[in-house]
Design goal:
The chain is an alpha+beta fold. The protein has two domains: 168 residues, Ribosomal Protein S5, domain 2; 141 residues, Alpha-Beta Plaits (2-Layer Sandwich). It is built from nine helices and 14 strands. The strands form three sheets. Strands 1, 4, 5, 6, 7, 8, 9 and 14 form an eight-stranded mixed β-sheet that branches. A four-stranded antiparallel β-sheet has the order 11-12-10-13. Helix 2 packs across helix 3 and helix 5 packs antiparallel against helix 6. It is globular, with a radius of gyration of 20 Å. It binds ligand FM0.
């Protein structure tokens, strides 16, 4: 039997309503629904080759063969498909992350969405995107949302079958995002460990859940009305509330650094001067600024007064996953 090949590109996403906490760690079922914006600037390209003549899976990231402890994660992920479909042979996975190292963004969201898409294509599984998002979810929760472009909701669902992504809006109404890289070192506490500690120990956690569901409902309304100010205000407030839960954990922790606060102050002052820009932060010190696409370049100039130009990356709204041809892959 011949080799089967699939190649897929998936973009990363930034949550505007955060996913923070699991109710099932094996199935990656979240405590709350979340909502994100897919970014054009950062993506992963992944090629999957099923080879019936091979018996051991292999994994190459940016042309470098990965150690067994990394390859095991890939095997565990592909095994989810192997349980439901008949897949022939071992798999070779080759991935390229197009995430500027300066961005300091985690790539697990785009990585597992691209891998799910490439498996689907290689083995001709014809899994439709919503179902595919439940597979991506099992690699990393945030990967659920990277199957689609624009604004995407990850509905927490009632079971593994319906905890999936749903496209909300293609965000083609003057939306952009600025990534301000504060520190690109690997963080001390992963988001996985951080959310687990928060769920287990923070007395603020129940309030987070109630509040996140309310924020989500209001944000969906703001998106429907294309009300940018409301969208931004909810984004900023929701992110801050997530970070507040961490200060209540035992032991308490925070991902913030002095420069994160400097960035927050700068964005607030820009807002006072009439610009529509709002902060969100994930499990790290880097700051993401939701803004109007039409104001992005001006905002970059303003930020350059306080931060190095290499720290500031502008992104358009990103699309859904898509297949790449062998030619596109070779041209990378
Ligand atoms: O993206 O344990 O997906 O909604 O980025 O792999 O399921 O890396 F701010 C934190 C992402 C968490 C919010 O967590 O965890 C968001 C966060 P996994 P992820």
């Amino acid at each position: 039997m011949s080799k089967q090949i699939g190649i897929c590109r998936a973009h990363t996403n930034i949550a505007l309503i955060k996913y923070w906490g699991k109710r099932d760690e094996v199935l990656f079922l979240p405590m709350n629904s979340s909502l994100s914006l897919t970014l054009a600037a950062f993506y992963t390209d992944t090629k999957v080759t099923f080879d019936p003549s091979q018996t051991i899976d292999s994994f190459f990231l940016n042309n470098k063969k990965q150690a067994p402890q990394e390859t095991i994660k890939i095997t565990a992920f592909i095994d989810l498909f192997r349980q439901n479909y008949s897949l022939k042979g071992a798999v070779k996975v080759e991935s390229h992350n197009h995430v500027p190292t300066a961005a300091g963004l985690a790539s697990s969201a785009s990585a597992f969405a691209a891998l799910a898409g490439a498996v689907n294509q290689a083995a001709h599984l014809n899994i439709e995107p919503t179902l595919l998002s439940t597979y991506a979810r099992r690699g990393s929760g945030s990967a659920t949302r990277s199957i689609f472009g624009g604004f995407v909701e990850w509905q927490k669902g009632t079971s593994s079958a319906d905890s999936c992504a749903v496209p909300i809006d293609d965000a083609d109404w003057d939306i952009g995002m600025i990534i301000l890289a504060i520190n690109t070192q690997k963080k001390e506490l992963s988001s996985r460990a951080g959310m687990k500690l928060t769920v287990a120990t923070s007395p603020f956690y129940p309030a987070w859940i109630t509040s996140a569901e309310k924020d989500l409902a209001e944000m969906k309304q703001a998106i429907q009305q294309q009300d940018f100010q409301k969208l931004g205000e909810i984004t900023e407030a929701n992110g801050m509330k997530m970070h507040a839960t961490m200060l209540g954990a035992n032991p308490p922790f925070s991902y913030w650094e002095p420069d994160s606060i400097r960035a927050i102050k700068k964005v607030k002052s820009l807002r006072k001067n009439g610009f529509m820009c709002y902060i969100t932060m994930d499990a790290g010190p880097n700051v993401k600024i939701l803004c109007k696409h039409s104001e992005m370049k001006f905002l970059k100039k303003e930020l350059e007064k306080e931060f190095a130009s290499e720290q500031i990356i502008l992104s358009d709204v990103g699309p859904a996953i898509r297949s790449l041809s062998e030619k596109e892959w070779l041209d990378l």
